[in-house]
Amino acid sequence: MKQELIQKARQANLAEYLLNVGVPLVRAGNRYKHAEHNSLTFTENAYYWNSRQEHGNAVDYLTRHMKLNFTEAVRALTQAPPNERGQGATAEATRGVLSLNKDISKVRAYLNHTRHISNSVIDFLVENKLLFQEKQTNNAIFPMYDESANLVGAELRGIIPAKPFHGIKAGSKYGYGYNIRFSANNAFDYALFFESAIDLISFIDWKRNHDKKSLNKCILISMAGLKTNVLTHTLKAYNGNLTPVICVDNDHAGQTFKSKLNIPHLVSVPTEQFKDWNEQLTAWRTSKPINRLIEKGKMF
Predict the structure, then answer these.
(1) The pTM is what?
(2) CATH superfamily of 3-86
(3) Taking all residues of the chain, what is their mean pLDDT, rounded to a whole number?
(4) Nearest 5°: phi and psi at 245?
(5) N or C: lower Cβ tally within 10 Å for the chain?
(6) Within its chain, how far is the Cα of 256 from the centroid?
(7) If we measure between CA atoms, which residue out of 230, 236, 99, 244 comes closest to residue 173?
(8) Where are the domains of the chain?
């Protein structure tokens, strides 16, 4: 790997990269702070974790805290062309990066017992090649497909509750997210945007098994965070002929995201007492009390 490429990666705009892959950052003057770690701050190309007395450049952060090896970190930060990166975001290359396990029992157990996703929804995902298990790590893989059904990346989710991990596979194509389509001819009326693949499939489970309602002519997309580039790319890809529906979390970050959108949109969020769609689904499926009726009429 060329030294110039490595230097470019070390000097890359770390904060911008993290925002693009869904890491929750909050602007604080000329810096950013991590929304979940008050002492973790970011400048354009460096980070400072004061409580740990740790700092470093962009490559350091990705290798230490984003589970990427050195080569993957350099490639992710530089977005070098495929012949220099060795593996681009084509279907063939991405499949090569994603080492799949034919047995998905560990991912199934995680989704079923920890996230309370029904077996019927899991079966639907598996049958339609919308869920895989990574061979080495057993991480859940939520593949990203483009408008022509080409594989262009993946959203990853760790399945060990004590060691939570959520991220985007290095080399995934910019502007795309994990998506599920309910239309025979790719003609959609609504595009529903979620903060994660888990929330997206929880919403499907909720609509199917609680509300008993169809999602026909809807495309559901995970932004893997709060990323306007995924939203704008999706709307552009379908010529703007569909209505965006914002299905993000009931928290400050979600409220801010909705308030800053400058396009007409609908909103479909969980009941106020729940942070996200999976929390609401879990409460219903485990028979935890729900204090008031789920709000109706926002979209369906």
Answers:
(1) 0.68
(2) Zinc finger, CHC2-typedomain (3.90.580.10)
(3) 83
(4) -125, 120
(5) C
(6) 18
(7) 230
(8) 3-86, 96-285
